[in-house]
Structures are given as C-alpha cells and as structure tokens.
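Shipment paperwork, digital attachment
Item: protein structure file
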Amino acid sequence: MAAFYQLTEQHWYPPNLLPYNALPNPHDDFDSILSNPKSTVGTGTHFYDRSLTSRRYALVGVVFSSIISCCCIATGVVIIAARGVNGVTPLMRLRGAMQNSTLLFEILKLILNLLVTICTESTGFVHSISLRSALASESRLRFNTNLRLLTAARGWKNPNGALLNGIMAVLLTVSYASSSLVVFINYTHSSDGWHADSVAIAGLPLLLLGIALLLQVVITISGVLAVRILTWTSSPFDLTAALVHHTQLTPVPFRCMCCVSDLDAGGGPAKPSQTQPSAWHAHSSIRKVVISLWGIVVACAGWAALLMYVWDKYNGAATMSPDALTIQTWSFLPIRHSNYIAYYMPDVGIQWWFLVFINLALVQRPLTLGLHCSELIVNVIRDERQWRCATGRKGLRTATNPLKPIFTHPICLVLFVVKPFLHWMFGLSFQVSDEAADGVVGTFAIIMFTAQIWNLCLALAAVACFFTLVALRRPWGPQPATYGHLQTLANLVDEWSPVMWWGHKEDGFRYCHAGTTDHPLPGVKMNYVYAGSGVGSPSPVSPLIS
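Attachment content:
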C-alpha cells in the first residue's frame, strides 16, 4: 500500500484525464475541476489594488531626485565658472579643535552618501516597477522581485532593455564614486604656516553627480512611459491578482499544497510539510548573489594582503607610509601614522579629474553592484514573510504602504543603512587627496589605507554572513513557501480579498482542499493529502501507508 500511495501522490490525475500540460484546452479542465466561483479573480479592477498611493510616493521620490540633481548641476556649474575646474568653494568654517579633526569632514561625506542612496533608491523603485511590467507584457516575469540592473526586456531601444539597463548600472556607480570626490578640506596660509580653514566642495565632481542622478531619472521616466503599469504596488499579491485578471497568468489546478520548489515535480496531490525550502534552494539567483557577496569579501581581503606584501617588500619608497601596520596604528578613521600606499597623477586638470574618477569607479563598481544585488535577497524574504501572515491572527493584507517595509522589516532597514555606510567605508579605504590650498586642488594622490581596507573587509564579511543566514533559513509550518513566485501564488490563492487567511477549506471524497478566504481558517490536516476543491474526501496518510 505504501508503494501505491507514493504513485498516487506523485503521478495522480483525475480519472479519464491526461496530465494537465497535455490537455488541448487547460482552461476548460480548470473550470470543470475548480467549480467554486470564488476561486476566480473576477472581472473588475477592484479585485486588485493599482496602488495609486505608491504611485504618488514614487512620483514624489522622482521629483525629489530631480531637484537634488538639478541643484548639484547648478552648484557645480557656478563653482566651475567662479573658481575654475580645480577650484573649491568653502562650505563650513572650521574653528578650534575641529581644525585638527577630520570627524566633521567624514560626517559630511556620510550624509552625502545617504542622500545619494535616497535618490537612487527612489528612482530604482520606479525603474523596477516599469521593468516588472515590461517583463510581464513579454510573459517573462516569474518572480515579483528581479535583479533590476541585470534583467532586461527585449529590444536594444527599449527603455527597459539591456542597453539602458547597463547605462543605469554605470550611472549608479558614477553616483557613488563622484560623491566621494565632492568634499575637500581647504587649507589657508598664515604667518604661522598652513592650517585647516574650512570644509569645501569641488565643482566638477558635484556636476558629475548631478548629471548621473538626472540621467537615472530620465531613463526611469522613459521606462514608465513605454509600458502599461498594471499596479504600482511592490506587493506580489496585487501583482498576481492583476496578472490573473488580465489573463497574463493562469492558475494551475491540483497544486494547492505545492511550494515554489515543487514546480518541476509534476504537481498533483501532496501532503503538508512541516518545513519549507529556503530561499537558497527555491531561487537560483539568490545563490548567485550570496556567492558574489563572498567573492567581494575574498577580493577585498586579497587587496589588503597585496598591499601588506608590497609595503613589506618595497618599504621606504616615497609613496609609502613609514609606519607599519600594527595594533597601535590600526584605527577606524585614517590617522597620521596609518599604513598606506599611494600613487600620484602627474598634473591637475579636467583630463586628470576624469582619470582619477575612472580609477575610483572601477574599484568601487563591485561593491556598488554587490549591494544592489543584495536587494534581491531582502525583497524575496520580505515577500515570503508577508505571505506567511496569511496563517496569522490578523491575516494577510495585500495592500501595503510602500514606505512601511523599510521601517517594519528589519532586513530592509539593515540594507538601507548598510548601503551608504559601506560606500562611506570604501571612501575611507581608497581616498583621493581631499586637500585644497587657498581654494584650489593642487595635486591628485590616490591613497590606499591598509587598516581601513581590512575594516571594510570585516564589515563586508559580516554583511555576507547575515545575508547567507537569511537565505539559508527555512520557514516553519505547512504553508507552502512562495518567495514572491507569481505562478505559485496564483496556484495557492483561490479567493482574493483585501485581507486573506490561508488554511484548510474543505474535505472531498479522497482529497482535501487548502486555499484562501476572507475569514480565519483552521490549520491544514498534516496526515491528509491535498489536491484542490471537488476532488476528494479526507484520506489520511497513515491508513494508506499501514
């Protein structure tokens, strides 16, 4: 009987019917089996939320990014016109102890990185919505969350295509790289020598930052105008309902107990499982992201080790610090006795600005793209946690405020804080000479601080460990895991409402049915096989096996 049960569970189909994929008209079979009228999405747009609130927030974010970019461009042009390409303008005077400390200087850099993060995240949200809609129109959308800059719609001229997505990736790197070059310490000469007079800003990096942010806004708006947006929400449930309503997604019968990792198993009746697969096993891109994060950690450690080897072998060169890396010279912020290796540009001028900028962008690019890819882990886990609310006391609310997940989901808040902080730490490790004399940048020196690179490596390792553990964690309970997979959600949600609960719905002749409704449901029966409505009465597993 055990063998009979295994065959029944894995290869079961209704009598006199071929497997679902072989049916000439699967919709007819679906309608005949799932005869409950509540299992359809309906015909009105009220069955899903277009989330006009999210659209308003998105437009506010885009407008904010546009204003910031225009301000950067205007300020950069004014500084260049008044003081030249190498000129800086004082922003804040330094008095007393602040003249001997770089703390205020570094705080301003961190604030600028945070501002860049807010702008890029605002445009990134809108860009991800337009890309998601473009993929849905091509029937290529599988998950609610995708790698925004590494996934593209068809067509080179498409605003959501590979060409402009690649440009968006370059502009994202340019935004963070240029922000590292904006703030300088301006020194003035007096009778007692040179001393730090003010924190100043340079015109050309600020101009490049404004152009990079503005171009991201332009590409984002062109992407929105080029595609029909079904819903602006980041919720996978409204998106799934919209796709089903517009017949871009069709629920598959007999899979009311199948999770996302069961898609290639053939479907059919299944008994509940006490644990669900992790995001690592359910989403192939998650594995690539985690491996990439650890690759960045290894590369950073190799970079620091290489600097230590070069310093030890060529100690005494003019471009190296005289102090070795020891416990006494190790610090979070660079100090006078920090261990470093530097190299200099032969001159100053616009061509050397761009050469310095290219150096900085090439080294910083892996970090920027690695943190961007980490969004996939965060959003996939967010979608799964939201889905698992369907078995909670308050149920699952399909419509959410787009800002709420950032502050209510710890993992979202962690990534939002980590992005500017790690870019700031990179700026501490790989510095372009941040000193100007009497309002003019006199030389370009690129300095690599060994201790700060190790600090960055340790911080990256902590972030990689955190996301690895999150990706490997297996949800507990019989509710099938979806991780924002749209087809799986369409199979599991058979009755749509603004607030939904998932659980046991009915007994049949041999098989039970689990699904969703607008009121709390009892838990599923662990010893029974589930297939869908109208296909069986309760059939406990234990009697079949015995």
